[in-house]
Amino acid sequence: MLYQRSSALFEEAQKVIPGGVNSPVRAFKAVGGTPIFVTHAKGAYLYDVDGNKLLDYINSWGPMILGHAYPKVLAAVISKAEKGTSFGMPTEIETEIAALAVSMVPGIEKIRFVNSGTEACMSAIRLARGFTGRDKFIKFAGCYHGHSDSFLIQAGSGAVTFGAPNSPGVTKGTAKDTLLARYNDLDQVREMISQNEGEIAAIIIEPVAGNMGCIPPSSGFLEGLRTLCDEYGILLIFDEVMTGFRLAKGGAQEYYGVPADIVTFGKIIGGGLPVGAFAARKEIMNYLAPEGPVYQAGTLSGNPLAMAAGLAMLSELDQQPSIYHSINHKTEYLHNGLESVFLKKGIPVHINRVGSMISVHFTEKNVIDFETAAMAAQGASFNRFFHGMLNNGIYLPPSAYESWFICDALTITDIDRTIDSCEQVVKRW
Ligand code: HOZ
């Protein structure tokens, strides 16, 4: 495949945009080569400026559960846009989508819309601190909760892809209140809590980690966190930016049957438009301004176009729960197909999968936390695999530290082609 026009556009972009991109992972620095400039997308496919057609396994990093340019989502956005694009005043549709989200997600009674997952997580921590009157929180190495200062401590996703999990610009004062634990290590969390008793406001976690590849919680881990939080008066925050409305209507809380105190959402709740949200029971949410003392605000929060897209997609998921069976089945089919290709060739891989999230780790060991994910990401295997697949028109996340996301527009024929492509790539391994 040729990427001449993408190359030229990348050159131009670098003159006026740092690194030529507006989010680091897109730059292909981790895998090498030229980032691909997209013109449009439909269903499971992306179309680029060089006329290439690519099968998409990132789906805008998660939100395109139904595929790109889904007709009902498009129609909702277009008809809203004709009536004005932003008012900074309340609109009826905000209550409609809030009520729908509250009906779909267990344990939440009120929800506040913001503009991104970063904002949602940052606000959730502030709310937890305000509610408990405590300053510290626990996060897990390799989990990524957006780029607000206190989360950029051993962060996953782009931060670790480029070897900067602790960003300059985060002050020591800020960093001291972020306690760092190993994913899937309940004993360490227990110890940390006892060393900081009465000081920890919250534990924030991606219930399925998706920013160090896909890593499932080990059996009993989420339940154990719940118990510890109850015991010590700590709020449990599930960052469901990737898992919310994707693993199940009610996200990871429903999928694992473990309730959180605060849940955060991102791109998915806006159907792919710039939206985030955080939600909890009334007792907690009523701490938020203007009802309570914890401040949070934004002109574009609850933006009508974003709410229209989110409402259209959530309604579709609510009315057609068979979608979950379908995307999970497709992901399992992909998992089995890829695994048998690698196995036949004797290439050591561990494929992690939960629902419609999946990632291939080139390693003999189970990938259960940041350390094992980082070990698997070393070496050239992922990059070779990425470029081999790309040459065959299959677009995977351009980093070993990112989960792949399956959309329902993907067909079994598409997946068979993906597995065939994998077979061709490993033939030349
Ligand atoms: N860090 C995001 C995924 N985990 C990537 C965002 C983007 O480049 O769009």
What attributes does this structure have?
alpha/beta; Aspartate Aminotransferase, domain 1; Aspartate Aminotransferase, domain 2; four-stranded mixed beta sheet; 15 helices; binds (4S)-4,5-diaminopentanoic acid
Task: Tell me what the structure shows.
The longest helix is centred in the last third of the chain and has 24 residues, at 322-345. The protein folds into two domains: 4-69 and 321-427, Aspartate Aminotransferase, domain 1, CATH 3.90.1150.10; 71-319, Aspartate Aminotransferase, domain 2, CATH 3.40.640. α2 packs antiparallel against α11, α3 (92-104) packs parallel to α11 and α12 (322-345) packs parallel to α15. The radius of gyration is 21 Å and the shape is globular. It is 39% helix and 14% strand. By secondary structure, the protein is α/β, with parallel strands linked by helices. β11 (350-354) and β12 (357-361) form a beta hairpin. A seven-stranded mixed beta sheet has the order 4-10-9-8-7-5-6, with helices on both faces. A four-stranded mixed beta sheet has the order 1-2-3-13. The protein has a three-stranded antiparallel beta sheet with strand order 11-12-14, sandwiched between helices. The mean pLDDT is 96. The protein has 15 helices and 14 strands. The relative contact order is 0.17. The protein binds (4S)-4,5-diaminopentanoic acid. (4S)-4,5-diaminopentanoic acid (HOZ) binds next to loops.
